Each structure stands twice: as structure tokens, then as C-alpha cells.
């Protein structure tokens, strides 16, 4: 029985550690595409591992571990050489596949030509860099598929990106709790209506499950669908007044990527089905006015979630409104145990 190490960590992780730093073997949004320019590079930490994003002169993107295979110096402080990065410490050159292409200090040594640095499968869509985060070296990337609301060309969308000083699981708890909209966001531009009491149910879908109010629809944050596909995400709709401009319902696709066990990268795509001139009108209104309103709503979430104690989800008294929270926690605990067992060779 062979115990396996998690890609990028050089150690095995138990179920609790996997749950804290993020489950593997799935796609995650990593960073807005616009933050990495052609010929540029930037360091990011995701799922507790330091990574280097860089583009060659033609704009092709690569994501490799921020660690030189020679002496483990960070490649992010090295020199960008177009299609490779030269480590500042001893000049070892690593390309976007993680292969050592040159060791200037000892040409012809065994390290040259060896794939010695972790390189991830990446995709770019919806103004975002996505990567498949493997559990072990044996993991095979699943096909990259965008959420339907983003893949549908009839929808226009805007990406909102933020980093929050809170565990990624707190974000998932928050979005699987629609009732907080009637309280935390009561003074917002879109969630001021409806009752402050409700009954909820869980409804299974082919891609996940709905958590929804049974006695109110289209008034406030009345439902959310948790979806499992190439990546995990939430899909929801918020009512919009006529003053918000032309178009269909206002949809949101939300994802959280763990930075480490205490910090999260938060991605929201604000979407609306609009066409022709109405598309231009809505996009203008969003940039001119609505985007600021949405950031205010996100700030309300951020302030509460960052204020929670690290063990806030350990000793609670949950009730019927929290069925969605309980469901997502059980699901992720089960996933973490399965991945920990796979690492242990069970």
C-alpha cells in the first residue's frame, strides 16, 4: 500500500486538512485574466500552494509551481525569458510545462530535459484563468465546461473578483443560506422586499440541488442552486426593478477558491439575458451605477464572514433555514474523507 502525496505539497493531507485548504481533482477559478499581461508573470497562492502564472510573448498562459526544482527558490523572483523562467538563485530555466530546459551552471546535467516542476492544466474563459487542481500525480484533468449561465452567448456578464480574509467554507455556507438576504442585505438596492420568515425545502437536480423558499419566489434572495460539474458553483437569481434597465432576470454565478485555510478568492459573475441595443444599455447602466451597488452588498457579506471566529461552524444551533448549510457541509466532509482515503491507498 503506497501513501501518496498531494500535488504541490510534498506531504499527505488528512480529511480535515483537505477540507480546510480545498478539495482537489476539480477545476477552480484562479485569477482574472487581465491581471496577467503578455510577457508578464505573477505569483498566486491557491489551495495552500504557491503558483506562478506567466504568459509568453504571444499571450499563451502557463501555471507552474512557484518553486525551482534545483534548490526550491521561488521562480516568481526570477527572470521571464519569453517561454521560460530563469531562477534568480542559480539560473536554472524552467518552461511552462515544468520541464528544465537549461542548467547554465552545469550544462548537460541530468536535470536538463526533466519535468521536475508541477505544471497545471489551464483554461481561460469568462475573463478568468481556470486550472484543474489535481489530488495526486496520477490525477487526470476532467473536461473543462463553463456553467451554463456563462456559456450561453445570449447572456451578458461582468466578473467581480475579491479576496476575503476568511475560510472558503464560510463563503459556501453563506450562499447556501438565502435567508440572510432578508436581514443582512435588507437595505440593499435589490433585497429589500419580501417576508423575514419563510419555509424552505431541498430539491434535487441533475447537477446538484436547489435550496429554496416554498412560500416566496422572485421577491428577494429566494433560492440558490448548488451545482457540480467540471467545477463547483452556485447559481441564483435576484429580482431587479424596472429602473435597472432592460433585460431578463439578474443572475449570479458564484465560486470560491481557497487561497489557504484562512483566506479565499471570491468570484462572482453578474449576468443578464439581453441583446442588441438593450445589451449596450444594460452594460452602461451596470458600469455607471449598478456595479457600485453590488460591491456594497458584497462588502456586507465580507464584513460578517471575516468577523466570524475560525471555529464559528463548530458549535451552533441550526434550524430549518439551515438545511442548505447542513447539506453542503455533509457533501464536502464526504468528499474530503474519500480523497484522504485515496491518498492513504485505501
Automatic annotation (TrEMBL):
Keywords: 2Fe-2S, Iron, Iron-sulfur, Metal-binding, Oxidoreductase. The keyword Iron-sulfur applies. Residues 27-131 form the Rieske domain. InterPro entries: Cholesterol_7-desaturase, Rieske_2Fe-2S, Rieske_2Fe-2S_sf, VanA_C_cat. The keyword Iron-sulfur applies. Pfam families: Rieske, VanA_C. One of its GO terms (molecular function) is 2 iron, 2 sulfur cluster binding. Coiled coil: none annotated. This is Putative iron-sulfur cluster-binding protein, rieske family. The lineage of its organism: Bacteria, Bacillati, Actinomycetota, Actinomycetes, Mycobacteriales.
Amino acid at each position: 500500500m503506497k501513501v501518496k502525496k498531494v500535488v504541490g505539497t510534498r506531504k499527505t493531507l488528512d480529511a480535515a486538512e483537505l477540507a480546510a485548504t480545498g478539495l482537489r481533482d476539480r477545476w477552480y477559478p484562479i485569477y482574472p485574466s487581465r491581471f496577467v499581461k503578455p510577457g508578464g508573470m505573477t505569483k498566486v497562492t491557491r489551495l495552500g500552494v504557491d503558483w506562478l502564472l506567466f504568459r509568453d510573448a504571444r499571450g499563451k498562459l502557463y501555471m507552474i509551481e512557484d518553486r525551482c526544482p534545483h534548490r526550491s527558490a521561488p521562480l516568481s523572483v526570477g527572470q521571464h525569458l519569453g517561454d521560460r523562467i530563469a531562477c534568480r538563485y542559480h539560473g536554472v530555466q524552467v518552461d511552462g510545462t515544468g520541464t528544465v530546459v537549461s542548467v547554465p551552471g552545469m550544462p548537460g546535467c541530468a536535470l536538463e530535459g526533466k519535468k521536475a516542476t508541477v505544471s497545471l492544466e489551464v483554461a481561460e474563459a469568462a475573463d478568468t484563468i481556470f486550472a484543474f487542481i489535481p489530488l495526486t500525480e496520477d490525477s487526470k484533468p476532467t473536461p473543462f465546461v463553463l456553467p451554463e449561465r456563462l456559456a450561453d452567448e445570449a447572456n451578458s456578464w461582468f466578473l467581480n473578483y475579491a479576496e476575503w480574509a476568511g475560510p472558503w467554507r464560510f463563503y459556501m455556507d453563506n450562499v447556501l443560506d438565502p435567508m440572510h438576504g432578508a436581514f443582512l442585505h435588507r437595505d440593499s438596492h435589490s433585497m429589500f422586499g419580501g417576508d423575514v420568515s419563510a419555509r424552505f425545502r431541498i430539491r434535487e437536480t441533475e447537477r446538484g440541488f436547489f435550496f429554496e423558499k416554498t412560500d416566496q419566489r422572485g421577491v428577494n434572495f429566494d433560492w440558490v442552486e448548488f451545482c457540480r460539474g467540471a467545477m463547483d458553483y452556485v447559481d441564483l437569481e435576484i429580482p431587479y426593478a424596472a429602473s435597472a434597465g432592460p433585460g431578463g432576470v439578474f443572475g449570479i454565478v458564484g465560486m470560491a477558491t481557497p487561497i489557504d485555510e484562512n483566506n479565499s478568492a471570491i468570484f462572482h459573475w453578474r449576468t443578464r439575458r439581453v441583446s442588441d441595443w438593450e445589451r449596450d444599455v444594460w452594460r452602461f447602466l451596470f458600469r455607471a451605477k449598478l456595479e457600485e451597488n453590488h460591491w456594497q452588498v458584497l462588502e456586507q457579506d465580507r464584513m460578517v464572514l471575516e468577523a466570524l471566529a475560525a471555529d464559528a461552524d463548530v458549535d451552533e444551533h441550526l434550524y430549518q433555514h439551515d438545511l442548505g448549510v447542513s447539506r453542503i457541509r455533509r457533501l464536502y466532509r464526504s468528499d474530503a474523507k474519500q480523497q484522504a482515503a485515496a491518498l492513504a491507498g485505501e
